[in-house]
Write the C-alpha cells for this entry.
Amino acid sequence: MINTIYRLSAPRRFEIDFEDISFSNNCIVRPTHLSICNADQRYYQGTRDAKVLKEKLPMALIHEGVGEVVYDKSGTFKAGDKVVMIPNAPTQSDDYIAENYLESSKFCASSKDGFMQEFVEISPDRLVKLPKGINLDVAAFTEIVSVSVHAISRFDKIAHQRRETIGVWGDGNLAFITSLFLKTMFPETKVYVFGISREKLSDFSFVDETFLTTEIPDSLRIDHAFECVGAGGSPVAIEQIIAYIRPEGTIAIMGVSEYPVPINTRMILEKGLRMFGTSRSGKEDFEKTVEMYQKHPQIVRYLTHIIGNIVNVSSFADMKNAFELDTRKAFGKTIMHWNP
Amino acid sequence: MVFSVILAGGTGNRMGNTDKPKQFLTIKDKPIIIHTIEKFLSQPKFEKIIVLTPQMWIDHTNHIISKYIGEREKVVVIAGGDTRNETIMNSVAYIEENYALDDDTIIVTHDSVRPFVTHRIIEDNIKAVEVYGACDTVIPATDTIVESVDGNIISAIPERKNMYQGQTPQSFKAKKLRDIYLSLTDKERDILTDAAKILVMKGHDVHLVTGETYNIKITYPYDLKIARSLLEEEEND
C-alpha cells in the first residue's frame, strides 16, 4: 500500500514522500491523535545543531501518539483496536541495560521517521492496547508520561527508603506529570514543586506545597529531588537542589540541555549524593502507565489540564499551524487530531 | 452498508508502448491496481471491495490479488460494462444480488489507476455521502480552463475560482444513482462522462470533497513516470 509520509525537510518546511508498505509485514496503524514534544520543536524551529539537522532531515516528526490498528499479521491486535505507539525500537536485548539506553535502539523522530504518516508500519511488540473510553487526547502524550514513570521507577530502585519529602524542580509539562505520578505512587510522601511562574504553579493543586525558586525558605530540606527544567534553567535548578537536599539524597536529572552544565561537585561529594540521568522509556513503562490510567482515573482527569491546543490536521497548512501554535503557548501540550 | 467499487474497465488505449491495461503496470514491483485495492482494504467500513475489470482480465486480476494481497474474502472481481456508468451499474447489480440494496447502501467508486488516494479522502467521501447523499472528489483548478465548442476558437473562459478538477472517489447512494440512471434516455446517457453527472443533470446536489494534487490518474506514460519517481525516490537517492 502506498503510504504518505509528511517529513520535515528543513526548519519550518514539510514535504511529502511516499513509501510502499506491505500488509504481509508487521502491523499497520492509522495514527489518530499526535502530540508535539519540545524535541520536535527543536527540529521544526531549527534550534538543533546544524550538523544534526543536516544528518537527520528529511524526517517525519512526532514520537508521541495513539492510533487505530488497521491490520496485524500476528493476530495480537484486532482491526479497530486503539493503541499507543512506542517510539523506541530495540534491535537487541541486554541483561543489564534497558531498551531505551541501548545504543543500537532506534527512536522515532530521531533516528527513524516519526508518526507524521498516513499509516505507521510497526511491530505489534511496540504497541500497547488502550482501555475503552480513555481520553485519546491525553493518551496521545502517553510517551512523555511514560518517561516520568520510567524515571520514578528507577528512582524507586536507587534511592534510600526515607522519602518524607521529594522536591520537583520545574513548572512545565514534565514537572506536572512527574509530580502527579510521584504523588500517586508515593501518597505518603510530601511532594514540593519549585518553579518560576506563580500562575503555572497554581495548577499543581495535587501536591503538598509549591514554591517560587526565588522564595525558598532557608530551612527547607528535601530527601530526594527530580530536575524537570532543562535548557538554560538547568544550572540554577541543579544548584538549588544540591543546596536543599539532605545528605545521601538521590537526584533524578530529567531536563534536556543542549550545552554542558556546570555542577557543584564539591557538595555532591560532601553530601554523598547520588545523581542519575533518565531518558525516554521502554515497553514496560508504557504498560505501567496505561495500567495506572485505569487504576487511578483521576490521573487522566488531571492530565487533561495540560492539553494546551487541539488542532485538526488534514493539510500541510494545518501541520504548520499546529507547530506554530505550539511555539506560542506558555504551557501545555499541543494535540493534533491527525487526518491528512 | 458501504461498498468500494474499483473501476478497472479501461484497456489503456492512451498508454503508448504497452500491451496491457494501465492498471496492471507496476510501480515499485506491484501492479497499480493492487496499490489501489490495498488503500481500500485499510478502511474497515467497507463490506466488500468490488473490482470491475474487462471480462478477459478477471482471471489475471484474481491471480494478482491472491499473489500480492492474499486476503480474498473482502475482495471480489466481476466484469465491467461497456462504459464507465455501465460498469458502475454492474457493481450495483452485484450488490443487489448478493446483499440488500436499500436507500442507505453506499458505493465509493474509484479509478483503479489512482493509487495515491489517501485514507482521509476515502473517509471524507463516506462521511459526505452519509450526510449529503452524493459527493465528488475535486481539487481547485490551477490552470485556467478554456472552453472551445468547435475546437478552433475559444467559446468561453470560465472564472477560474469557480473551476475544479474532478478526481475520484465519487460516492453515491447506490439505489438512487441506479434509479436515476435507468430513467435517462439513450441520448442523455451518451453525453455522460462520469457518474456524478448522472445526478447533476437531473438537478440533484453533489457535494465537494477536497482531493489532493498527488491523487493523480495514471493515464499517460508521463503519469507512470511521475508515479514511479514519487514512490521510488528513496532508491534513487
Observations:
- Chain A has a mean pLDDT of 95.
- Chain A touches chain B through 21 residues (CB under 8 Å).
- The CA atoms of residues 60 and 126 of chain A lie 18 Å apart.
